[in-house]
Amino acid sequence: MPKIFDDSNTSTDAPSQTLSRGIRVLEILADARVPLTIDAITAELGVHRSVAYRFIRTLEQHGLVERDAGGRIRLGARLAALASGVAHDLQAEALPELTAAANELGMTCFLVVLDHEECVTLASVEPRHAVATVAQRPGTRHPVTVGAPGKAILTQLSPGAWPVGTDAALAAEVHMAALRGWAESQNEVIPSLHAVAVPLALRGRRPAAIAAVYLPTDREVASVAERLIASATAVRSALDG
Amino acid sequence: MPKIFDDSNTSTDAPSQTLSRGIRVLEILADARVPLTIDAITAELGVHRSVAYRFIRTLEQHGLVERDAGGRIRLGARLAALASGVAHDLQAEALPELTAAANELGMTCFLVVLDHEECVTLASVEPRHAVATVAQRPGTRHPVTVGAPGKAILTQLSPGAWPVGTDAALAAEVHMAALRGWAESQNEVIPSLHAVAVPLALRGRRPAAIAAVYLPTDREVASVAERLIASATAVRSALDG
DNA sequence: AACGACGCGTTCGATAATAGAACACCCGTC
DNA sequence: GACGGGTGTTCTATTATCGAACGCGTCGTT
């Protein structure tokens, strides 16, 4: 079971210990993907049970965690409400564009932003006959060095800011992507699926990308990229205009 | 500008003051819907600036907030990653069903759960020719006493657990919805839109509902409800079976 | 230019919030 | 009935936190 969140913050002590531990409760719960007992959280946190108990009651008051019938802890629905505020203007502008692009292309289209060397999918829209339904759900994360969206995002970063695992082959791909304005990938993030991504650079915002996934086909890749570029341009003019 | 989050927790002092304040930073940011300065957050929190500063640095380390070019604070992308863990098994089971229902009905279908007297939309899928694109985005909240999903959810609660604002008319509607297995609403949550919702009761989980919105039409409402019931049954058997 | 208003980041001591031990309880089950 | 695993509460020493004070840069304005 791979860890979703990196909890190796023993070296870098957070400015606020209590807040950091409380957030780690949320990370542990998201990581577990199944309701946990207080004792399990206690063990994972490495603190006394009464401490974890106090955290959980506080998180409960804010609706960020809930308890199921057996008293186990799970993430609360209001966390989803909080997350809807993440780049909500970007999402508001991008969603109609994603929908239009997805329907015109017949492909799942999604919006990706950079988050500390990782790509996070903020929104995704599926076309009618969806084949990769569960593939890119909002909140999905994967390294920025993998996949078309990652390359499209890397074109917006100076090579010095690239993550350490960036090899020459990837650098070449990013370079080409920067020149022609779009990136592609095959079987990288999702096996047997291809992807096209275009960069979406916005003022005062983390690098982003708009992407589409599709089954290997004889579709003209460049035309897909053109369609995505149109959407990206529309979004950019709406937000930065 | 209506407040999204109720920050009237001056009476109910949270068990962990620090954690509660840190979470309120997130709520304030989600409420503002625009990047804030540290001073603005400080004023809203009612604490000293050095305190808010410490919170923000901690939140920043966890990726829950980011800073734009001007140093202003906004919610971070990793918050979306956290939120994807909310009822992720329910979402995983419901999304394909929502997609199928949305395409077959030609309506936007979405999944709603109860959160402390409010409905929270966890996932929504739009059909090809979407008309209410921006209407029901994940994370949207509205009172449980309004709209078809709310009624479908109220059928799963004992009347004693209903919120205070529940009048007789609503009670009658909920009663009928409980009898026939689905609820409907007109122009309640979204003006000029109708909605149908069916309850989705799951073991050890908050009451939920599957719903569809559509423009006023001569479509047979009962047939829409039947389709939603089929999806709800499929989800229920997958999770509780 | 000088000024004030506004913003950020840091240091530091007193204090209050926290940490963790200990205790009481409930519920299965062996 | 004892046991193990779980929860919730109370209490005190300690420690993390709080908030005042300070320094600094950057705007606009007079």
Describe the structure.
- The structure is a homodimer of 241-residue chains.
- The radius of gyration of chain A is 20 Å and the shape is elongated.
- Chain A has eight helices and eight strands.
- Chain A has two domains: 17-81, Winged helix-like DNA-binding domain superfamily/Winged helix DNA-binding domain (Arc Repressor Mutant, subunit A), CATH 1.10.10.10; 85-240, GAF domain (Beta-Lactamase, 2-Layer Sandwich).
- In chain A, the strands form two sheets. In chain A, strands 5-4-3-8-7-6 form a six-stranded antiparallel beta sheet, with helices on both faces. A two-stranded antiparallel sheet of chain A has the order 1-2.
- By secondary structure, the first copy, chain A, is of the alpha+beta class.
- In chain A, strand 3 (108-114) and strand 4 (118-125) form a beta hairpin.
- Chain A has helices at 17-32, 38-45, 49-61, 77-83, 88-105, 147-154, 168-180, 221-240; strands spanning 65-67, 73-75, 108-114, 118-125, 141-143, 183-186, 194-200, 208-214.
- Chains A and B meet through helix 1, helix 3, helix 4, helix 5 and strand 4 of A and helix 1, helix 3, helix 4, helix 5 and strand 4 of B.
- The first copy, chain A, binds a DNA duplex (30 and 30 nucleotides) through helix 3.
